[in-house]
Amino acid sequence: MSICAAGLSLMITVIFCPAAGQTPFPLSVSQDVYQAEQHSNITLTWIFPVSAVRSTDSLIVDIMDVKHMTRIYNYDSETETELYPHELYRGRVLCDPELFMKGRIECVFTDLRLNDTGTYQCVVMFDRYRSYKTCDLNVTAAKDQPAMETSNPVGRERFGLYVGLALFTVVTIALSVRYFRFYKLM
User: Fold this and answer.
1) Which end of the chain, N or C, is less packed with Cβ atoms under 10 Å?
2) Distance (Å, rounded) from C-alpha 45 to C-alpha 79?
3) Ranges under pLDDT 70 in the chain
4) CATH 2.60.40.10 is the classification of domain 22-140
5) What CA–CA distance (Å, rounded) separates 57 from 125?
6) Is residue 90 helix, strand or coil?
7) Strands 28-29 and 42-47, bridge-based pairing
8) % the chain with pLDDT above 90
9) Distance of alpha carbon 72 from alpha carbon 106, whole angstroms
């Protein structure tokens, strides 16, 4: 086969198969980096065009923690099952499959832990097409809450001062009266 024939064959393939090697739908993330504090909640959101979804398509959504290479969430529309395979995330990650057909993937992470920090990847597959996008989650330690000081009312402190001053005055007057009576008798 000559170079011309190979080039012509390649051009025909490219013209008649424009989707070959391309992603049929873009998957985007609402934020590239999410920030949250320990013990708080956060929602990671991925978005794709609704026009990419047809009711006949089989939809698979797979979310994983890239750092630990663990699968967090898996949904398959053909079996209509959703799985939370990793026990560290089970009960703490909630995804709403009803939003998938509207072009949104929202996963709520509850009671965040410091080791939840990392890169998360969402893979969406329609029939034979696939798209994926990653985002980062940074979990910081919760700031210490300042201890509540037990405050004494201002009037209580002054009340003690006034009582002490009054006792001092009464004792001083009593001693003065006794002193003058004693010396007057002499």
Assistant:
1) C
2) 23
3) 1-24, 51-57, 144-157, 182, 184-186
4) yes
5) 9
6) coil
7) antiparallel
8) 18
9) 13
Where b means 16+ CB within 10 Å and e means fewer, 146-175 reads eeeeeeeeeeeeeeeeeeeeeeeeeeeeee
Residue ranges per domain, the chain?
22-140
pLDDT reported for residue 41: 93
pTM here is: 0.61
CA–CA distance from 30 to each of 46, 65, 103, 115, 158 (Å)?
6, 18, 12, 22, 58
What element of type H or E holds 75? strand 70-76
Sign of CA dihedral 140, 146, 148, 153: negative
**In this structure, how many other beta carbons lie within 10 angstroms of the beta carbon of residue 33?**
10
pLDDT at residue 114 in the model? 92
